Amino acid sequence: MTWEPIRQGHFEFxxxxxxxxxxxxxxxxxxxxxxxxxxxxxxxxxxxHMNLKVFYPMALTSTWTVRTCLYPLAVxxxxxxxxxxxxxxxxxxxxxxxxxxYEGARGLYKGFWVTVPQxxxxxxxATVYEKLRAYLLNDLGFTSVAGISSIAGGAASFxxxxxFVPTDVIAQHMMIYNYADKFxxxxxxxxxxxxxxxxxxxxxxxxxxxxxxxxxGLAGFYRGFWASSLVYVPSCFVxxxxxxxxxxxxxxxxxxxxxxxxxxxxxxxxxxxxxxxxTNPMExxxxxxxxxxxDYKETFDRIVRNEGWTVFTKGLPPRLISNSIYSCVVMVxxxxxxxxxxxxxxxxxxxx
Length: 352
Known about the structure:
By secondary structure, the protein is mainly alpha-helical. It has helices at 52-82, 92-102, 104-108, 119-139, 145-175, 190-197, 204-216, 225-253, 260-292, 296-306, 316-340, and strands spanning 2-5, 11-14. The protein contains 11 helices and 2 strands.
């Protein structure tokens, strides 16, 4: 409202002019602006945050690429763990030089194509892991991220053994085929003898499948299933707590100003190393059980008698290198894939 002076000091009342655009009480530009709250940072991307049609192909591709690059280390680890003490190779470097010199790249990738079905384990692992995480978090009210991941990871690892064990059994026999006499002996050589007597019946992979079935039946493909589970399930119980503990530690050191993806890479490397060291004796037990074809008690007695305390370090260097690199690259790749696969409404909240 305005008051305007007139003659002799009087004032005239004039009503407000609501037709004037600049002072209209209904003009949105004059209304106080309400700032929308910024979305909370999304540090852990859950199952319901992602576009699964994009997630699965990208996750499987990244995981399998890393497996392919690191496969030679699996061959080194297998041969070092199967030999009695240092009867064939003095150390990891000696094993690598010998295989590369006398067998070439084919020796370092012996049994690789048999492990191709293991790409299915990535699908199984990712599905069980993410779904169980979501169930524990949302339905059961678990609050510990490390605890949730340990339980979900252990369950996912156990389920993936359905594919892992048969392909590992076949691939491991193929890995030592050229020098099998140096790695197995006595009654353990039954599969080897079958392979040598049937050299004209197909590729080494097909002949190995036939040999395992001929000697042990279908059960032979799942030899050491429980031993394998006792490697990979406890491995998750070590890896995930260490992974999140290191992340939290780095976060405190950097006052929450660090680069999350780099923190995850460091945490995954340390977690992979810790879980590898913790499970190495069971890994030696598993591979000898599967390749030497002895029972659980006999395998244990042989390891104690022939290896003693060295079982804790047998084949550890290549396995440590492989698992540390694998954990780092796969976790970073997995986290990057998850970030690219988040639904549009969560993209602004993603923390890199």
